[in-house]
Design goal:
This protein has five helices and four strands, in the order H-H-H-E-H-E-E-H-E. The chain has two domains: 4-44, Arc Repressor Mutant, subunit A (Orthogonal Bundle), CATH 1.10.10.10; 57-139, Alpha-Beta Plaits. The protein has a four-stranded antiparallel sheet with strand order 2-3-1-4. Helix 2 packs across helix 3 (32-44). It is elongated, with a radius of gyration of 20 Å. It is an alpha+beta fold and 153 residues long.
Length: 153
């Protein structure tokens, strides 16, 4: 179970993974050594599984942000494995989730423009194994001003 200090460390790391140990220790009111020990413990427990850069894709010209809802015709383990192998080969898909209900998979796709998006649909997604339907949700503005998880609950 995480205590309040561990929760504070997780919150601070989620806001800025590049924070120095000294800065982090000051923010969570620990000595640098104690803070580093706690971070290492969170890492070795798998609670902190890595650090990454968040890339601003629109700044790179990827102005289309969409979720593609996909239904497959054959819900077997083999079909799921084939789909998983195929979707992982597509560089245009940044995330893909198995879901429940009428939709089997939800993929996030970024494209430079609508022609590029159409090419991704036609040449990559529509030809995935067992795909029977695709539906697209185009995403506009992120309305979240603080998209953080509250680690105190």
């Amino acid at each position: 179970m995480l205590d309040k200090i561990d929760q504070s460390i997780l919150t601070e790391l989620s806001l800025n993974a590049k924070v120095t140990n000294l800065e982090l220790s000051e923010k969570v009111n620990l000595s640098p050594t104690a803070c580093l020990n706690r971070v290492r413990k969170l890492e070795s427990a798998g609670i902190v599984s890595g650090y990454k850069a968040v890339i601003d894709l629109p700044a790179l010209g990827y102005t289309i942000n969409a979720l593609v809802l996909m239904k497959i015709g054959n819900n077997t383990r083999e079909a799921a494995n084939n789909f998983t192998k195929a979707i992982n080969q597509l560089p245009s898909v940044t995330e893909c989730y198995m879901s429940s209900g009428k939709i089997d998979y939800v993929a996030r796709v970024y494209a430079k423009d609508f022609q590029h998006f159409e090419n991704i649909i036609r040449d990559e997604l529509a030809i995935l194994p067992d795909i029977v339907s695709l539906e697209t949700l185009f995403l506009y503005s992120n309305l979240m001003t603080n998209p953080m998880v509250d680690f105190s609950n």
